[in-house]
Amino acid sequence: xxxxxxxxxxxxxxxxxxxxxxxxxxxxxxxxxxxxxxxxxxxxxxxxxxxxxxxxxxxxxxxxxxxxxxxxxxxxxxxxxxxxxxxxxxxxxxxxxxxxxxxxxxxxxxxxxxxxxxxxxxxxxxxxxxxxxxxxxxxxxxxxxxxxxxxxxxxxxxxxxxxxxxxxxxxxxxxxxxxxxxxxxxxxxxxxxxxxxxxxxxxxxxxxxxxxxxxxxxxxxxxxxxxxxxxxxxxxxxxxx
Length: 241
Description:
Helix content: 25-40%
Number of domains: 1
Order of helices and strands: HHHEEEHEHEHEH
Number of helices: 7
Structural class: alpha/beta
Number of strands: 6
Strand content: 5-15%
Radius of gyration: 16 Å
C-alpha cells in the first residue's frame, strides 16, 4: 500500500528522539495501543473503522493523491487560502493548517498528531480523511479524538501512522517528524513524485499561525528537523526562507 520509507527518513526519527531525549518505548506503547484498538471489528463502536474499510479508504486516497492534476500541501505557516486562487488544485493539509483552506471539499486529507484544535475538529466533522499519528506524548490526545469522532453520524476515514522501529498491524511509518514533513513523506510513500507538487506555508523562521499551542523555542528546534527531513526528501526548495 505504502512504499517503504527511505532509510534516511526513518533514521531521522531516531536522531530526533536522541536530540530531544525522548524514549522510543513511549512511541511504541502509544502506537501499539492504537494498533490493537483498531484491529477490533468496530473500533470505538465504529464499524467504518475496521481494517478492511480503512484499507479501502486508503486505496481511494492513494488514487486521488496520485492522480490529482495539481496537488498543494499546506503547512502551518500558510496564509489563508481561497481555493479559487488555485484552479484545479486539491489539497493535503498538515494538522491545523487545514484551517487555512476555505473549501474543505477540496482537501483530500489532513496529516495530524491531533493538536490541530478546532481546525482539525471542523475537518473531521466535514468527513475529511484524517491520517492520524501516534507518538509517545499524544496518547491521551488521539484517544480523546477518536472517541469523539466515533460518535459522528459520518465519522472521518482514518489512516494510522507511527514513528517507531517496529511493524504494527494496520499502521504505517512513512517517515518524517513534524506534521508538515510527515505529510510530504506520506505523499511520497503513496507513490506521488514530490517534484510534481506545490507547497505553501512551509517555513522555519517563525512558528506558523496554524500550529497548535506549543513551546515556541522547542517548536523552532522541531522546525529545524522539518527542514532536515525536507532536505532528505529533496524538497528543501519549498521552504520559505
